[in-house]
Design a protein that fits this description.
By secondary structure, the protein is of the alpha/beta class. It has 17 helices and ten strands. This is homocitrate synthase.
Length: 436
């Protein structure tokens, strides 16, 4: 047995050991949890249309629908056909594509909306009505008795037509709990497919979500869908917590686009759930296609994919600090909880900066097949740090330095070639010399 220097022994066979398991999974799984058994309702073509820059014509909607279907999302939610004549036509077109995903549309709790939606050919209706005091007073002006009566009427009609139906309250977290549970129990009793909770203004936190979903789970037998806005940055955390508490379906949109700051982003949710149960997520969804649909949507709504976007941002798998780079090169799991290759991405070790380490430079030497020693890598690393104190170097700059050093070493002049380069701009003179 060896002592590690901090009072711990590195090979103490007498100490009881826990089974090797993911530290991100609960030690004793909650029997109500659905983190390994959930469905995604992808709402880019409904909630996403409410994004400030969004305008999707029919061809673009079809392109997005097919791209989302290729990922394997369970449902596609479309704008209500009551919104406009084109919205009605879009429902008909996408419903006729023969996609694997079920097609839903989102409608007000109103019989006319329900009848029009049913005629559009969708597989199910997502019915919604506001229940908070704010919305009852300043939006539709109806009391809870009216809301309950209307919900039962509309749901019964939709069910009679053989379609799925979800009933959701709007602004759920600012609604009275007794009102919520009362109406959810009423619609569950008549056989609604799902009930929905909506954090319409993004005010909820994970603890509130867990308590509400767990309470609702104890009074209804149907599925539970959750819709979280991201105004205060909790959408992904709230979605994950909802699944822990017993929710079954989560609403998402590509890049999180939607009203105001949008809702739970599809890529972000899949990253979170991959960490929780990699096997389930990878067997169900094609994670390599996330980048494709994000590029389609970003281009359509005239935004760029954020630099720190989950999975696909250009910094998502970039490593810079020397100690990080060394560990990553030895074992990527040291500083990556997501494997970029599972998402069709690649990691990048940035080396043209003052924080670089010689292990990262040595790795680049090996990639270029230059055959330099560890000492050589250390010498070039010192020069990179010196030059990068003036400005960062591009990968081409670093490669030029390495090749020039390698060529000079064959002539015994490798020390001199580094000494001659006093500024980053002088690297260009090496390129010019090579071109001659």
């Amino acid at each position: 047995m060896s002592n590690t220097g901090n009072g711990l022994k590195s090979n103490d066979s007498s100490r009881p050991r826990e089974p090797i398991a993911s530290p991100y999974m609960p030690k004793y799984p909650d029997p109500m949890s659905n983190i390994s058994n959930f469905k995604i309702i992808e709402s880019t073509l409904r909630e996403g249309e409410q994004f400030a820059n969004a305008f999707f014509d029919t061809a673009k909607k079809v392109e997005i629908a097919k791209a989302l279907d290729a990922i394997g999302v369970d449902y596609l939610e479309l704008t209500s056909p009551a919104a406009s004549e084109q919205s009605l036509n879009d429902c008909r077109v996408i419903s006729s594509l023969g996609l694997k995903a079920k097609i839903l549309t989102h409608v007000r709790c109103h019989m006319d909306d329900a009848k029009l939606a049913i005629e559009s050919g969708v597989d199910g209706l997502d019915v919604v009505i506001g229940t908070s005091s704010f919305l009852r007073e300043f939006s539709h002006g109806k009391d809870m008795d009216y809301i309950t009566q209307k919900a039962i009427e509309v749901i019964t009609y939709i069910k009679s037509k053989g379609l799925e139906v979800r009933f959701s309250t709007e602004d759920s977290f600012r609604s009275d709990l007794v009102d919520l549970l009362s109406i959810y129990k009423a619609v569950d009793k008549i056989g609604v497919t799902r009930v929905g909770i909506a954090d319409t203004v993004g005010c909820a936190n994970p603890r509130q979500v867990y308590e509400l979903v767990r309470t609702l789970r104890s009074v209804v037998s149907c599925d539970i869908e959750c819709h979280f806005h991201n105004d205060t940055g909790c959408a992904i955390a709230n979605a994950y917590t909802a699944l822990e508490a017993g929710a079954t379906h989560i609403d998402t949109s590509v890049l999180g686009i939607g009203e105001r700051n949008g809702i739970t982003p599809l890529g972000g949710l899949l990253a979170r759930m991959y960490t929780a149960d990699k096997e389930f997520v990878m067997n169900k969804y094609d994670l390599t296609k996330i980048r494709d649909v994000e590029n389609i949507v970003a281009d359509s709504v005239e935004v760029t994919v954020p630099f720190n976007n989950y999975i696909t941002g250009y910094c998502a798998f970039t490593h810079k600090a020397g100690i990080h780079a060394k560990a990553i090169l030895n074992n990527p799991s040291t500083y990556e909880i997501l494997n970029p290759h599972d998402f069709g991405m690649n990691r990048y070790v940035s080396i043209g900066h003052r924080l670089t380490g010689w292990n990262a430079v040595k790795n680049r030497v090996e990639q270029l097949n230059l055959g330099l020693t560890d000492e050589d890598a250390k010498h070039v690393t010192q020069k990179i740090k010196e030059l990068a104190d003036v400005r960062p170097l591009s990968l081409d700059d670093v490669d030029t330095l390495l090749r020039a050093y390698h060529q000079a070493k064959d002539q015994g002049l490798h020390g001199e070639v580094l000494n001659k380069i006093a500024t980053p701009d002088m690297i260009a003179t090496i390129n010019a010399a090579h071109e001659k």
